């Protein structure tokens, strides 16, 4: 009875993480759209919704703590619970980064730097693909998909490095420097989101075999 109850609660926790992942991915989509369209209302929506993301993570953590206290899980079950908390934490941090993107996007001139913005949108699309696939690997326990994150993360890292090097290669005015610095912040947030997508994949692998591989 206890084991059956534990596994049912564990499935509930995983469903909550899947829902949290969907919410965070939607926040990222909003952040990309708000940046692309300079949509102030959407930026404010992202910022305001962050409290919901925080509540999701807190709910998952409380559920995990209750399971540990009441069910006394064995080693394999405890590993699943640890992975659940870690993934929830990583997803919450992605949510924070989408808020950072929204806040910085407010300070970027709508009409300027079209070429640089396009580079960032390409980078954001690749990071979004990573988030989507890492969440899918969690949902389906697909280790092959999880292991792909290393190569995808390398691609985003290379894009980030190329973007930063190209930002200030020409002389800039004080106004240009301010705007280019904000674009650099956006690039950094996108690169960090890709890192957290990779972290999620690492925890999927850990949950499966008990070994923690560094995919970054």
From TrEMBL:
Domain of life of the organism encoding this protein: Bacteria
Domain PhoU: 17-103, 120-204
Main location as per UniProt: cytoplasm
Any Pfam family matching the protein: PhoU
Coiled coil, from the record: none
Keywords carried by this UniProt record: Cytoplasm, Phosphate transport, Transport
Transmembrane intervals: none
Gene3D superfamilies: Phosphate transport system protein phou homolog 2, domain 2
Keyword Cytoplasm included in the entry's annotation: yes
Subcellular localization: Cytoplasm
Role of this protein: Plays a role in the regulation of phosphate uptake.
UniProt xrefs under NCBIfam families: phoU_full
PANTHER family (alphabetical): PHOSPHATE-SPECIFIC TRANSPORT SYSTEM ACCESSORY PROTEIN PHOU
Family recorded in the similarity comment: Belongs to the PhoU family.
Protein name from the UniProt record: Phosphate-specific transport system accessory protein PhoU
Species assigned in the record: Alkalicoccobacillus plakortidis
Gene transcribed to yield this protein: phoU
